[in-house]
Amino acid sequence: MLSAVLPIFLVGCAESYTVHVNGFSEVERPIWNMAAIYVAVDANSENLIFEKEIKRKTEKLLSLHGYVPSAKEQLADYRLSFEAGMDSREVRGYGYSHMPVRVGYGHYWNHYYGDYGMYAPYARSFYNQWLRMRISDTGRLNPLRKGMVEWVGEAVTARYSGDLREAINYLLVGSFEYFGQDTKKRMTVTIDENDLRIKEIMEYR
Questions:
Q1: How far is CA 62 from CA 10, 65, 155, 201, in A?
Q2: Does this model's pTM top 0.90?
Q3: Sign of the torsion formed by the C-alpha atoms of 147, 83, 177 and 187
Q4: Taking a C-beta distance cutoff of 8 angstroms, is the pair 59, 38 a contact?
Q5: In the chain, where are the structural domains located?
């Protein structure tokens, strides 16, 4: 299970996602450039339409990063499978609320926020949205390696919005920052909506 993270928001004109990425591999660089990769979907998925959407986005990113999407598994060097999901969690605490104080004279009144206020409890849900990718060898070049897992990549982001369909774009782009690499530790990537890769894959619905 992917580790829970708290939402982080950056102030600016463009909306940003903070994505935490972990890559696992037993070899230094398992996925060679220009490799043919078949993106598989789970035919028994509860939402096959969404899975096919993720497949198309993944194939586009493979092309952008120098790999060759394969239409058939038997013609590919690697098989890429994936899982995506969302977990919700409620955050509770106390927040300080400033109370408006009205001051002025005559017919002219202004409002300002002074130091008068109170602490009040609050509860808010946030969502861990995650993506896990797995690369395995098809055995096309070496039958002895067929089915061997070459790389596992995990990406997670936390938002107060539970829209996984939007978040998947950022999870995919974040994953491709370290695609095929053993990161040795969790890496953090900040991606904003103006990223050209986001714009490219958002067309695939």
A1: 28, 5, 17, 11
A2: no
A3: negative
A4: no
A5: 16-89+125-201
